[in-house]
Specification:
2 copies of one chain form a homodimer. Chain A is an alpha+beta fold. The first copy, chain A, has helices at about 10-20, 20-25, 35-55, 55-65, 80-85, 105-120, 120-140, 145-155, 285-320, 345-375, 380-415, 425-435, 445-455, 460-480, 480-510, 515-550, 555-570, 575, 580, 585-590; strands at about 65-70, 70-75, 160-165, 180, 190-200, 205-215, 225-230, 235, 240-245, 250-255, 265-270, 275-280. The radius of gyration of chain A is 24 Å and the shape is globular.
Chain lengths: ~600, ~600
């Protein structure tokens, strides 16, 4: 099996040319992100990925996490890897230095996370969820809660979980039934069962901080009656030391299609009537806190789509370079070619490569928008960047995770029969990737969020600005002419389709919500493909400028232009392919009755 | 878990309206296919599927086939199911009554096979391979070989395997190294190792007839030096009884992503220097025999794509009708809707349904063309039908198996978190389906076969005829107007794209074989989507005619028209999405050097 290799070259290209890291590092509070430090950090993060996390990825899948007597044992090597991760200070990268964080931008943190997730998706889920919980605590926690939990969570000594789902409350969070009763001392008695709790119990951290959604007595129905609670596995004494075990336990693990290393727990709260929880944020305002947590997590899950795609690409590429089968046109019958020389295999590799690079731009830009929304000195810019990061988040999550699955599948295909055999490792990525379009809000939910909440934001201004940027990119490409000029037309056409479909949705949703719901997924898809074309178009322009200036790695820069042209020809037409569906409305979806669908 | 339900209504619709079963039954030798008999046969085949094969599908996946001391034990219930299958006479359905076959058309046999494969893909692979071997023996076997083997193989008492692949000879069959030396008595001494041999060893049949590709001493290199041999597990005595064990054994089983019930064997021939084989066909003409075998198997594997998609659809539909989450627009906050009422879920279900029905048409038509090629009294019609079945086969195989994977993935998605948990069963289809684009010639190989061999057949006449048929369908739809008229334009446009791309490929391949190889997969995809639109358009026309005539099941007929319209809007644009890629040529594929791809 090919070892994981950190794609630092492309990461730097994206951070410097698409994200504008220099501008980001100039913002107050982000000055840690000076170029040499970022370079060094990413190089070390890459070593963490390739030397520590990658070697236990396949074995962790084979062993899986196990539950016995309430104790979850993670696969061999996980505990040691987590210790190295905490000792390296990796967990705190993007967080407030006040709590021991590194104060680095999310744009840079995402690059590091990409490598860890490429190397070991199942392992990296644990810190991923921890991050979301830290965000929620930072934003909504009382001074006391922050003082008690944040430093340990930022360091990673304590991990954290998100407890939303119950058997009858999945996408419909508002249907949850877990209870929280005031105990009279400011704390709450928590009871109920939660399912699909990732790393709900494990042996890697000293303590586990569960963030649990529950209802107070007499809370209003639905999402307006939900509160969020901090429920530690071990209660924390006044001096910060760990006290007694709280009344919370893992009662079973799910047997899953993939990410076997990661324990997916059924958690039971308050079986003995003594589960202590601490209110986080205001009563009945739990959904707001949860969204803070989920927004960070949704970008991160989108990143996982990119990460697994990059890993699948690397493995397929290594296999294609080694495996010899058949001959290229004109080759003597006595010879055989590495399959990478076959046009059809090469096409598959280019599909992987171009979409990976497009996703990388989208994800890092999404992270950079979040950074600017928090750190820019101008409130108007902060508002605009906040709107941008919110708009991009569902696209990052859904488009990148759908592609993660598709690209992992191409990876299996390039392996031929060996791809279907588990020992090759390609099949693991295909299995692992499949959770990504589901968790942290299914991709259908993301599409509804995009169309229902994000598209109408600021009167549609954020989308209009993005479309204007796409058109400006197309114009610049057209101006550059030559190989770049060939990208201009398809990109310009893609921008037109985004404009046309978003106008149609805004106009029609007002009268018929189902018009938006029916077109949501095709719209998200075409928006994602169009953004990919836009970012690769900008990449080609930047590469062209560098080539003309004689700067940089010539091979890499020329490849950027080829990749953008390939994407424009072979991938970007997906924008058009989703156009009619985005504007089709609900008529045909409901024209066959539910019963008749089965006949 | 929802039980499998035979989709007899749609099968009859396709057989009567798209295949024209009545015309088929009028051909000499196919008179067994009279409507009442076919109805009864399919109903019974459906019971075999739902009552016997479906109940052991999930458990068979959990248990898997096991190897111990050279003996392969299939999962509980497999042996009994196979006995019922043989006793029911199912194995012989399409074969010559002279050897105990049923003399039914392939078009009808495929409908029965669809149900068995929907119910249990892993089990149904065994008879599928048996069929290919029977075809090869019927076409190329000596009278003695036929007399010795055919009746037992047609009944299914003996199963059969196809032994092509070796560790260094996968897609490149010509690279194989297994040897066959004349023993001086007309038989051959076989030696070598074969991998990925499906049902190479098992406990369901009395004997296993291996068809093995090997090289004679001093055979020419490559595919022109390959011969095919019959190598029985037990030698057959003159009186037809089983004699001594032949020197062939299963040395290990692969650990696979899916189809766990089906043993995938590493087979070793002649470890003790005493493996007896019988030449099938002429020396060094093994590839020709193998193609006979593979062509039948390729249609059948395409059918497996349809079958797994149908099963995934049924399960997702049942889940969506039961699972309640959230509310539809306007629903009171105290209520909750079955998720089938949500537009985005309904869109996914319609994607599944419409593409399943399109595939069903393609596969049965492909089978019917094979029937006519063999049974039509007019040699000119036979030739045309032969060309048609050969043209359609790679599309059936590749397009349907890619869709099988995609639709199984949509099935997982509709289940949300439950889809990722193995106990739901949706994940099994996702895993099982993934082998289909790989075996019996990867889908890349199919595309190359389509472009390189099939497209140029008869000077491109077969493709031109299909395009003319598509245009005639579009015209008829346009003439019908109303709801049907809306399908005409997209279909007409699709026919234009097929014409444009096939002309381009024919014109450019002559000078640059890589031009064809580069565009092969996008061309196959767009051809498949276009044919789907054509067949659903014809279905809509037939449904409309029946509705106007007041005949048939109104609900089913109206649904057919809706399904065709949905496909035209949401699926058919994939034709255009693959257009540019089909004609892009190889330039951008090879513009980045193999080394630079990794940087």
């Amino acid at each position: 099996m090919a070892d994981y290799r950190a794609p630092l070259g492309d990461m730097r290209f994206v951070l410097n040319n698409i994200v504008d890291l220099k501008a980001l590092a100039a913002l107050p509070g982000l000055d840690a992100a000076e170029p040499e430090l970022v370079d060094a950090v990413l190089e070390e993060a890459g070593k963490m990925a390739s030397q520590i996390l990658d070697p236990i990825n396949y074995s962790g899948d084979r062993t899986g996490s196990r539950l016995a007597d309430g104790v979850v044992t993670t696969p061999p090597g996980y505990k040691e890897a987590y210790r190295a991760y905490v000792e390296g200070g990796w967990n705190g990268m993007p967080f407030d230095p006040e709590y021991g964080g590194g104060g680095l931008p999310w744009a840079v943190t995402l690059a590091a996370m990409e490598m860890w997730n490429s190397a070991n998706l199942a392992f990296s889920l644990c810190p991923l969820l921890n991050q979301g919980a830290i965000e929620a605590l930072e934003a909504h926690g009382s001074d006391e809660l922050k003082a008690t939990y944040l430093a340990k969570m930022v360091s990673g000594e304590w991990s954290a979980t998100m407890n939303l789902t119950e058997p009858s409350a999945g996408s419909d969070v508002g249907a949850l039934r877990s209870k929280a009763e005031p105990r009279g001392d400011g704390t709450y008695r928590i009871s109920g069962q939660k399912i699909f709790i990732t790393y709900g119990e494990h042996d890697m951290a000293e303590n586990i901080v569960h963030l649990v959604l529950a209802r107070l007595p007499d809370a209003p129905p639905g999402t307006r009656g939900i509160s969020l609670f901090v429920v530690p596995k071990f209660l924390v004494e006044a001096d910060g030391s760990l006290g007694r075990r709280n009344d919370v336990r893992c009662v079973s693990l799910e047997e899953k299609l993939g990410i076997h290393g990661s324990p997916t727990c059924v958690m039971s709260y308050g079986d003995e009537g003594d589960c202590v929880g601490y209110l986080l944020g205001a009563e009945n305002k739990g959904m707001r806190c949860m969204f803070t947590m989920m927004n960070a997590a949704r970008i991160s899950v989108g990143l996982q789509g990119l990460a697994i795609a990059e890993r699948a690409y690397q493995r397929a590429l290594a296999f294609a370079a080694e495996r010899r089968q058949g001959r290229t046109p004109g080759m003597p019958a006595t010879e055989s070619a590495a399959i990478i020389e076959h046009a059809d295999v090469r096409r598959n590799l280019m599909l992987m490569k171009s979409q990976v690079e497009a996703m990388r731009c989208l994800l890092y830009v999404n992270g950079a928008a979040l950074d600017a929304a928090r750190h820019h000195p101008d409130p108007a810019v902060r508002e605009a960047r906040q709107a941008l990061t919110e708009l991009l988040t569902p696209i990052s999550k859904a488009w990148s995770t759908d592609l993660g699955c598709e690209i992992a599948s191409i990876g299996v295909q390039i392996h031929g029969g060996m791809g279907f055999v588990e020992e090759t490792g390609a099949a693991q990525y295909y299995r692992d990737a499949r959770i990504l379009p589901i968790y942290e809000g299914t991709n259908g939910i993301q599409a509804i969020d995009l169309v229902g909440r994000k598209l109408p934001m600021l009167g549609g201004e954020t989308v209009r600005e993005l479309i204007a940027e796409m058109r400006a990119t197309a114009e610049a490409l057209s101006g550059a002419g030559g190989d770049l000029g060939a990208i201009a037309d398809p990109l310009s056409r893609a921008a037109d389709v985004v404009a046309e479909t978003s106008d149609w949705l805004l106009a029609n949703m007002a009268n018929d919500p189902n018009a938006g719901l029916a077109g949501a997924t095709p719209f998200l898809k075409l928006f994602g493909y169009a953004l990919g074309g836009h970012f690769l178009g900008r990449s080609a322009l930047a590469a062209n400028a560098a080539l003309n200036g004689g700067a940089g790695n010539r091979e890499q820069l020329e490849a950027k232009i080829v990749t953008a042209r390939f994407y424009a020809t072979q991938v970007l037409p997906q924008v058009d392919a989703n156009r009619a569906a985005a504007m089709a409305g609900p008529e045909l979806l409901f024209a066959i009755g539910a019963d008749a669908l089965a006949s």
